[in-house]
Specification:
Structural class: alpha/beta
Strand order of the largest sheet: 3-2-6-1-7-8
Radius of gyration: 22 Å
Helix content: 40-55%
Order of helices and strands: EHEHHHEEHHHHEHEHEEHHHHHEEH
Largest sheet: 6 strands, mixed
Oligomer: single chain
CATH topology of one domain: Arc Repressor Mutant, subunit A
Shape: globular
Distance between the termini: 22 Å
Strand content: 5-15%
Length: about 350
């Protein structure tokens, strides 16, 4: 079994496709435990807004299944309004929204949403992707969704157990949900259920969101060590990136002005102070000044910072388009890197 930290929704498909090609593991395939949201219509439409009119009602679950992704419900306490609508429509057909959602939840929706099925209409696509807590679903529907989810998860876990017994590798992100703040979440029960059946390997994943026009993903794989918490091992094994070092420095200094030279000196100092057990992204290790300049350019391109003469200044609104659940990408990078250091220092 291969487990990773769960930071972004694209990691599973990329990592599994890469490993399958690299290992030519056709006889003993690699499957990944993926969010059931990927098996609902509109998954790609939300992520490719300019094609949303075409992709809105298309379900690409067949495509994900064909490349080794397998679904499991990973959002146990809240999920998009439209996901609740899919379940309830399957159980009951269309329902009155007032009978399903609390007044607090309905206040977040357009007034034209009168019935659950209205959430599936094109004009309500964005509203339907807002997240709702299951505590805002009224009885008896909340109990039905919980019971339905439990049965679904049990069937999914049994499926993965069978795959492992047949010799397959299972890629699992045991936190279950994506991190919005860069902190590794608590590992859930699916890990304890599947771990006794397999040898565990770790896939430590990092992103470099400030460097380059495309979001780059880096990962390292290593065998899990016995008697050491897996979350600490995952924090230690993931690569250190330019974005993590720069984001940490910027978070710690606040919103003061800084120059490119100050940023370069800060990255050099951070690299020198890293515990030797940590792995540094090779291009950063070989040419930190060049990577720092690229990250500074990324701050401007993402509209996270602005130039005031020769100095840079962070803006109050610091979001990244590839991290829709993250309110502040600088704080995210700080949290991520601090936990990487925690893993190195403990071990």
């Amino acid at each position: 079994m291969l487990i990773s930290n769960h930071q972004h929704e694209i990691e599973s498909a990329v990592l599994i496709a890469d490993l399958t090609i690299a290992t030519i593991s056709w006889r003993y395939p690699i499957f990944t435990v993926s969010s059931r949201r990927m098996w609902e219509p509109g998954f790609f439409a939300e992520r490719i807004p300019w094609l949303s009119s075409v992709l809105r009602m298309l379900n690409f679950g067949w495509l994900f299944s064909s490349i080794g992704l397998q679904p499991i419900e990973n959002e146990l306490h809240e999920r998009p309004f439209v996901s609740v609508a899919y379940v309830l429509q399957g159980l009951h057909g269309d329902l009155d929204a007032e009978a399903v959602f609390t007044e607090r939840a309905r206040a977040r929706l357009p007034k034209t949403v009168k019935r659950v099925g209205d959430l599936l209409r094109a004009e309500h696509f964005t509203a339907g992707r807002l997240r709702v807590k299951l505590t805002d679903v009224l009885e008896p529907y909340r109990k039905e969704i919980i019971q339905f989810t439990r049965a679904q998860v049990e069937a999914d876990l049994q499926h993965f157990e069978n795959l492992q017994r047949a010799g397959s590798t299972i890629f699992l992100a045991p936190e279950g949900d994506y991190s919005g703040d860069g902190k590794m979440q608590r590992m859930r029960g699916s890990l304890s259920r599947l771990a006794p059946l397999a040898q565990i390997w770790l896939a430590g994943i990092s992103y470099d969101p400030l460097v380059g026009r495309r979001l780059s993903m880096l990962y390292r794989i290593g065998k899990a060590e016995p008697d050491i918490p897996l979350d600490l091992q995952l924090k230690r094994i993931r690569p250190v990136t330019t974005s993590a070092l720069l984001g940490t420095w910027l978070h710690e200094r606040g919103e003061r002005h800084f120059t490119a030279q100050e940023a370069q000196h800060a990255i050099d100092a951070a690299l020198a102070a890293l515990p030797r057990v940590l792995f540094v992204e090779p291009e950063l290790r070989s040419n930190p000044n060049r990577l720092t300049r690229r990250a500074l350019h990324g701050l401007l391109a993402l509209d996270i910072a602005e130039l005031d003469g020769a100095a840079y200044r962070l803006k109050p609104h610091r979001v990244h388009p590839q991290f829709p659940r993250t309110a502040d990408i600088i704080e995210y990078l700080y949290n991520f890197h601090r936990e990487t250091l925690d893993g190195a220092n403990v071990l």
